[in-house]
Amino acid sequence: MTETLLEIDNLSVDYETARGDLKALRDISFDVNRGEIVGIVGESGCGKSTLISAILRLIAPNTRFRNGAIRFKGDDLLTRTEEQMRALRGGDISIVFQDPMQTHNPVITIGKQMVDIQHRVKISKAEKLATAARMLGVVGIPDPEARLKQYPHEFSGGMRQRIAIAMALMSEPDLLIADEPTTALDATLEVQIIERLKDLQRDFGCAILFISHHLGVIAELCDRVVVMYAGAVVESGTVREIFHNPKHPYTRRLIECDPGHIKTRARVLPTIPGEVPDLANLPEGCIFRERCDQAMARCAQVPPLTRLSEGHNAACWLNHAEEIA
Amino acid sequence: MSPILEVKDLQTSFGEVNVLAGVSFAVEQGETYAMVGESGSGKTTVIRAIAGLAPAQAGSVKFDGQEIRGIGERALRPLRKDIAMMFQDPTGSLSPRLTIRNLITEPHKIQGMKNRDLDAEAKRLLELVNLPAHFADRYPYQLSGGQARRVGVARALALEPKLILADEPTAGLDVSVQGELLNLLNDLRERLGLSMVIITHNLNVVRHVADRMGILYLGRLVEEGTTEAIFHEPRHPYTNCLLSANPEPDPDARLDRIALKGEPPSLIRRPSGCEFRDRCPMASDVCSQVPQWKVTNGHGVRCLTPRHL
User: Fold this and answer.
1) Count of pairs with CB atoms under 8 A, one residue in A, one in B
2) What does the pLDDT look like over B225-268, one tens digit per residue?
3) Which of B179, B250, B263 sits opposite A159 (nearest CB)?
4) The complex's ipTM?
5) Fewest C-beta in 10 Å: which of A78, A216, A226, B112?
6) How many whole angstroms separate alpha carbon B256 and alpha carbon A199?
């Protein structure tokens, strides 16, 4: 029995700028079920960060919610008061940020920071310290009691990211948002973090919304994948459908470009020519049209995100063959 | 032919932190050499020490046959037009207050070549890295990450160097743009006959650009050879761990991953014997001895129980 935990429904978000409204997210829809790992993949400017800040409602003052809803356990977060949102953040929803070197306060010990974030729990300080030590152990920090007395600079980057994960899991959230948690780390540490996340997800049963531009990591970790391009969802589906049977040219090209795919030395590596369109001055029709090598007349209209099979959606006219003919 | 760059037993310490414990390698004319290692392995220090931007207490760095280690800033300055750096952070390494024209012709001014037509020069360089000429009037904040990288490449090429030292040239780039930059570097190398040292931890990148590569661990090379040989027959267990820690863009990829235990040891208290043995999946009693550097068929390794030998 799958139960929807987070439902992004036709979400559109603009940034008001001097050049006019920058349409950062347009009609975004996808779900995250309980206990599921959903990957969001896309390149710079695709709207990954806007999406996270929208879910947490940690938004810049010029952000405008134009349309849609963000339902968490059936409740629209956009209608919640700021006070209700504060109770949610670091409670039922927590987040691990990209840069482990800047996540922690450099002048406070790890132990104190881990006790401080338990401010909602009515237990003694000794008990909070014990919880903190136990969580450090869970993420594989050796000798946790002694380490609690240390400052962030006394830990390596990989350890700091694991501490950030421990802190995010302390409240036993239903949803963990991981914003490029391995981008700043080496391949060996990246692998450590992914494997740790997999184990923790199994033990804690929380859902994870995993944002990354690294296809290898997404392929290894996620159950389902949402592919974003320039503020729109172009495709979503199970991890196998996305990687083995992509139905949007952007997804296809993105996978081709990953040099991890190319096992022999290539003289010329594949690229996607052109640039992401200006979101303050949107082109007509399909957002990927100008960079797409399969573009046709039909693409002057925006293709809808269409269900192709159970749990596989794509927004491309190529999947509407009967209508073209 | 003598190599364009020959580094022998290069040693660097910052106080008691012994970052480079004797690094030796050579780069031939027209060759791309990749230096691979984890954070803290000393890879950035290697190229900074070569360029005279970090101290090197011992060893030798020969550029085009001439010793350049510790020769001082004054003697080094004329050589800087032959040895160009590409820094890691593309936007951070460009002054926010200069236009792209000024940024890419700054090397000419520093080297006293003001008599050249700098406008034409800016145009030539932008064309070389496939950026439109009107970018000359832009400021760094108006560039995307990929464009800022290209400006970094243009600036490195400004004085037609013989050697480029590139620190993580594709870090932070999207995959679609990363390919473009690697294609550009490959193309320029072919057209201009450049030699390059590339520092990276991204093995997917190394495979497509490097002729030879070295694996650095705790400030020492543990393996060196042609890129082909290292990918197909890695001899050092650490290299093997690095290669297997490369997530594949395929959910059904078979993962025979070799887990790397623990964290890199402290550079202040280096481990005894083989410095990798505490984390090594193959470690045995013999590893309490110090492994020597052994070369067979041009493939070097520092391990007492190497594979594929």
Assistant:
1) 119
2) 999 999 999 999 999 988 888 788 888 886 677 777 777 788 88
3) B263
4) 0.81
5) B112
6) 18
